[in-house]
Amino acid sequence: MQVTLVNYTPNPELTIVATARSSASQLTMEELWHKLNSQQISDLLKQLLDSGHLSTFEHASFTFNIQGISRVTSHQLVRHRLASYTQQSQRYVTLKDHRYVTPPTIAKQAGLRTQYQQAIENAHQLYFQMLEAGIPMEDARYIMPQAIETQMVMTMNARELLHACSLRLCLRAQWEIMELFEIIKTEIEKVAPYLGAELKPKCYQLGYCDERESCGIFPTIKPTVKTK
Ligand SMILES: Cc1cc2nc3c(=O)[nH]c(=O)nc-3n(C[C@H](O)[C@H](O)[C@H](O)COP(=O)(O)OP(=O)(O)OC[C@H]3O[C@@H](n4cnc5c(N)ncnc54)[C@H](O)[C@@H]3O)c2cc1C
Predict the structure, then answer these.
(1) Whether the CB of 82 sits within 6 Å of ligand 1
(2) Any ligand 1 atom below 6 A from CB of 211
(3) Is 94 helix (H, G, I), strand (E, B) or coil?
(4) Cα 134 to ligand 1 centroid, rounded to whole Å
(5) Is the CB of 79 under 6 A from ligand 1?
(6) Ligand 1 centroid, distance to 93 Cα (angstroms)
């Protein structure tokens, strides 16, 4: 897969913290913009996360070009509703490439891998046979498997990125969408290192694992709250 951060709110972290500060200051966001130094930005970002003042993170958005993910993963991705998506259309663009994703579990079993490749090849051949017979692209595509690659553009704000990463960077998430969000995190770290460092699986915030089985980073048992 190829994931590129194509565009983003300039100075995303400063945008978030100057906005947050303006809510409790005589100064405007614009005035605060010129006053905050790097240490203050980092400290304030952490404070906002700790206090749950998360709406301020909505002021910074990131636009990614995403290529070479399966339709399985694009479907999982668009379940994150608080983002904008534009996906390449299968009604208007012919599926002429043989590009598809092979999960590692299948790739490492030679016999099954061959059958898997053959099944996709067969579907692809029938797809073109149908196009030649005059079936419209929008109907011929029904034969194609979920493994085929797709490309899309996604714009997500920092608040939703924190949320989506909390779910998709969890080791219990599926490998392909986890890989996608690992790259997204890396891309964010290049332009917003403090924010990027906060893109973590949910257990880091919870302090425990809420999945049925823990990967080992945190125990599954919710810590008991001590009362007097
Ligand atoms: C490991 C894993 C397994 C999954 N398995 C399945 C499955 O088997 N079947 C399945 O259907 N889905 C499954 N999902 C998808 C999951 O149910 C969510 O649809 C997906 O993770 C999107 O997250 P979200 O709903 O928290 O929020 P997003 O859409 O990312 O929205 C962010 C937050 O905004 C708020 N919000 C958004 N929309 C609304 C709304 N309409 N009303 C109120 N609050 C809202 C919520 O607080 C939400 O958490 C799975 C997800 C994961 C991570």
Answers:
(1) yes
(2) no
(3) coil
(4) 39
(5) yes
(6) 30
Alpha-carbon gap, residue 76 to 178, rounded angstroms: 11
Global confidence as pTM: 0.93
Give the residue carrying structure tokens 């590009």. 99
CA within 13 Å, CB half, 88: 15
75 backbone dihedrals φ, ψ, rounded to 5°: -70, -40
- Going along the chain, which residue ranges are E strands? 2-8, 61-70, 83-87, 149-157
Nearest to 88 by CA among 161, 158, 137, 143: 137
Task: Determine whether 168 is an active site residue.
Answer: yes
pLDDT digits (tens, 9 = 90+) for 46-100: 999 999 999 999 999 999 999 999 999 999 999 999 999 999 999 999 988 779 9
Tokens encoding 26: 């005589």
